[in-house]
Amino acid sequence: MSKFWSPLVGELKPYVPGEQPKMRRLVKLNTNENPYGPSLRVLEAIRQQLDDGLRLYPDPESEQLREVVSRYYGVASDQVFVGNGSDEVLAHIFQGLLKQDKPVLFPDITYSFYPVYCSLYGVESRLVALTDTFEINPDDYLVPNGGVIFPNPNAPTGRYLPLSEVERIVAGNPDSVVVVDEAYVDFGGETAISLVDQYPNLLVTQTLSKARSLAGLRVGLAIGHRDLVEGLNRVKNSFNSYPLDRLAQVGAAAAFEDEAWFDQTRKRVMAERDRVTEAMTGMGFEVLPSTANFIFCQHRTMTGEDLAARLRERGIIVRHFSKPRIDNFLRITIGTAGQNDELLRALGELTG
Ligand SMILES: *Cc1c(COP(=O)(O)O)cnc(C)c1O
């Protein structure tokens, strides 16, 4: 606490990102990064951009990138908003769209950045409990609210809500914005972007950090009705006119132009996820059905905390949350086949 802080700063409980350890030769399965590298076309596009032009500010509107994204998803480019990682996009959404007279609703077990933005921007919130099987029940969101936000698939559970159920939440809330955070949708889910022309209250966010393997480039996006996008632009242009640098704009655009690499790598991740799930189930784990690039699991007899500590001794880092309802669970990112083999070997020894 410093006397120089504004009163708000003393009250904040900031988000704690998963550790980025300095040690080498770790099997790092704690922050849902993609185990495969980005498309070579992305690297080439960034290399091409490395010249004297860096002395100039980037395009504040990221027009070319927004064009590429709009063509990719079949929407108009004024329905596309881009930001410095989807975390920044989400921040603008909380401040510009979800701060209303009534509380915003989100699941009790979900992405832990949501409550952080609520306290930063003074947004009132109400937690909606997931079912006993950690599922979202759409009926729970059909009550008066100032907005709704949930990841689909949800994090850290990995559980997916079918598009028809997402639509029920959107259709049942015509007077508030429903945000579907699709950070993990490309690992087997179906995007709600197909519904944005039908529902002016629907906003879908995505990131290039997971399925497109560009967590280090920091690019996220939102797609919805142009009025929602215009609202976000008003916030963005009151905060930072140049959220995406020159390298990020060209690199992100190139990522959408290499469908083959995108498809190949996400399919490998999905196949490995199913293999790891089956092997761990055989070791006495309950593994929630996942549509993401991670699994959420607990062991019949060993605690999550103990398992995480013992894996760490063997150089394998996974994520454990000391939170109600899920403090016995581990969230484990799906790695390369080799990394997953190491994980399974270690778990076999620890649980055998
Ligand atoms: C990873 C993640 C994000 C943030 O992605 P960035 O684009 O890297 O900021 C947003 N939402 C959820 C649910 C995530 O897991």
Topology, element by element:
Elements: H1 7-11, E1 27-28, H2 40-48, H3 63-73, E2 80-83, H4 85-96, E3 104-107, H5 113-121, E4 125-128, E5 147-151, H6 163-171, E6 178-181, E7 202-207, E8 220-224, H7 226-236, H8 246-256, H9 259-281, E9 285-287, E10 294-299, H10 304-313, E11 316-317, E12 330-333, H11 337-351
Parallel strand pairs: 1-11, 3-4, 3-5, 5-6, 6-7
Antiparallel strand pairs: 2-8, 7-8, 9-10, 10-12
The structure holds pyridoxal-5'-phosphate (PLP).
Pfam families: Aminotran_1_2 (PF00155)
Subunit structure: Homodimer.
Pathway: Amino-acid biosynthesis; L-histidine biosynthesis; L-histidine from 5-phospho-alpha-D-ribose 1-diphosphate: step 7/9
What does this structure look like?
With 352 residues, the protein is an alpha/beta fold. The chain has 2 domains: 7-37 and 260-351, Aspartate Aminotransferase, domain 1 (Alpha-Beta Complex); 40-258, Aspartate Aminotransferase, domain 2. 36% of the residues lie in helices and 14% in strands. It contains 11 helices and 12 strands. It has helices at 7-11, 40-48, 63-73, 85-96, 113-121, 163-171, 226-236, 246-256, 259-281, 304-313, 337-351; strands at 27-28, 80-83, 104-107, 125-128, 147-151, 178-181, 202-207, 220-224, 285-287, 294-299, 316-317, 330-333. Strands 2-8-7-6-5-3-4 form a 7-stranded mixed sheet, sandwiched between helices. Strands 9-10-12 form a 3-stranded antiparallel sheet. It has a two-stranded parallel sheet with strand order 1-11. α5 links the parallel β3 and β4 (125-128). The chain is globular and about 55 Å long. The protein starts with 6 loop residues before the first helix and ends with a helix. Bound molecules: pyridoxal-5'-phosphate (PLP). Pyridoxal-5'-phosphate binds at residues 85-87, 111, 151, 155, 181, 183, 207, 209, 215, 220.
